[in-house]
Amino acid sequence: MLSILTGVISEGMIEKGNSHKEEMRFQEERKKQAFMKKLRDHFLESDIDGDGQMTLDEFGKSLPQMMHMFEVEGFQFGIDDLTMVFGLVDFDHGGTVELEEFLQGMTSFTANVGDLPLIVLRLQSNIFLHLNQLETKVETKLDGFDARCMASEDRLQSIEEKIAMLVSMQGPR
Fold it and tell me: Over 80: is that where the pLDDT of 123 sits?
């Protein structure tokens, strides 16, 4: 009887612990979503010219407010750290980042170990997306090149035929 009672109590505690873990995970996710909304709003406010891109200059001007936002969330990052993130998400090194690049960079930068599988999956997805886009562009360029080569070959053949006809019209010398 004592064993059965102990088993029931243990099972109840395990179930309650699992439920607590799940609730903590949901709270963490809600907290991350709220922080991402703050970062989105920060980006929109920092985009002074409203072109949908944040320049390095706009980023620098809004850096103190962003550092404060991170501190409130419990992150202690320096100016160099955040500037490095800007540089990392500015893939073309043009000095600007778009909203989604900014949010993905900040999400990855503030991620915890539990987020790594999702980040790796997102990275893999982005790599395949960009590889597919690159493949499509290369195929389009090659198709255009092939068409130009075929046209050149046709013109060359036409010229050769005209030369052969002229030579045959002149007859033997």
Answer: no
Contacts of 77 (CB under 8 A, 6+ apart): 67, 70, 109
What's the CA angle centered on 72, arms 70 and 77, to 5 degrees? 30
Q: Rounded to 5 degrees, what angle do the CA atoms 79, 85, 90 make? A: 125
Question: How many CB atoms within 10 Å of residue 113?
Answer: 6
Residue 173 has pLDDT above 70, yes or no: no
The DSSP secondary-structure symbol of 82 reads H
Rounded to whole angstroms, the Cα distance separating 150 from 86 reads: 47
| pTM (predicted TM-score) | 0.52
d(CA 74, CA 24): 17
3-state secondary structure of 84: helix
Phi, psi of 47 (to 5 degrees): -75, 80
Question: Residue 134: helix, strand or coil by DSSP?
Answer: helix
pLDDT tier, 117 (very low <50, low <70, confident <90, very high otherwise): low
Segments making up each domain of the chain, as ranges: 1-110, 117-173
Q: Which CATH superfamily is domain 1-110 in?
A: EF-hand (1.10.238.10)
